[in-house]
Specification:
The protein is of the alpha/beta class. Helices cover 25% and strands 21% of the residues. It is built from 5 helices and 7 strands, in the order E-E-E-H-E-H-E-H-H-E-E-H. The protein has helices spanning 49-59, 80-93, 107-110, 122-128, 159-165, and strands at 2-10, 18-23, 45-46, 66-71, 98-102, 131-134, 155-158.
Length: 175
């Protein structure tokens, strides 16, 4: 996996102060995407142990609320194993930090058993994140007034409640 960018002290991609990691590679190619350079899987720098440690060291600073993983596409099949490992380390070493993830795929269609992006790592990722913003960016539904999403079809899903209920539970942040 490659990383296109790591943003520190980011407050645009989730609640509070965040470290945001833009993974590379996306097959969705949404019209109007704000990061089309991240569509290429080889964009940016290779993700390795040193990059992972840099992310965790930064995230350990006391002013951070959490980590956001976006892209590109974290749920592309070739990205999931590395994303799952990063999330696992964050939950183990920095359990007070929350984790947001953005995906162009739909939770209850694409990320469930039989879905087009379901792998042996998907449940591990979904079980450990706090918020999932799902759905393709749709330029015709673009709305600059929305918090934490770009188009009206996208949902902010509370993953703790969703996993407990067995169905998508929207966060109050959707309002």
């Amino acid at each position: 996996m490659n990383i296109g960018e790591i943003l520190t002290a980011d407050c645009a991609n989730g609640l509070g102060m965040r470290v945001s990691v833009f993974v590379s590679g996306c097959l969705n190619h949404c019209k109007g995407c704000f990061q089309p350079q991240t569509w290429e899987f080889d964009y940016g720098i290779p993700y390795d142990g040193a990059v992972e440690q840099k992310i965790l060291d930064e995230l350990a600073m006391p002013y951070y609320d959490g980590l956001t993983i976006l892209g590109g596409e974290p749920f592309e099949i070739q990205n999931q194993e590395t994303v799952a490992a990063l999330i696992g380390r964050v939950k183990k070493e920095l359990p007070a930090r929350n984790i947001w993830m953005y995906t162009g795929y739909t939770y209850d269609r694409d990320l469930v058993p039989g879905g087009c992006r379901y792998t042996k790592f998907t449940d591990s990722i979904l079980d450990q994140i706090d918020i999932l913003v799902d759905g393709r960016f749709m330029e015709e539904k673009k709305n600059l007034c929305l918090k934490f999403r770009g188009s009206e079809n996208q949902r902010i899903i509370d993953m703790r409640q969703t996993r407990a209920a067995g169905k998508a539970v929207l966060s109050p942040l959707n309002n």
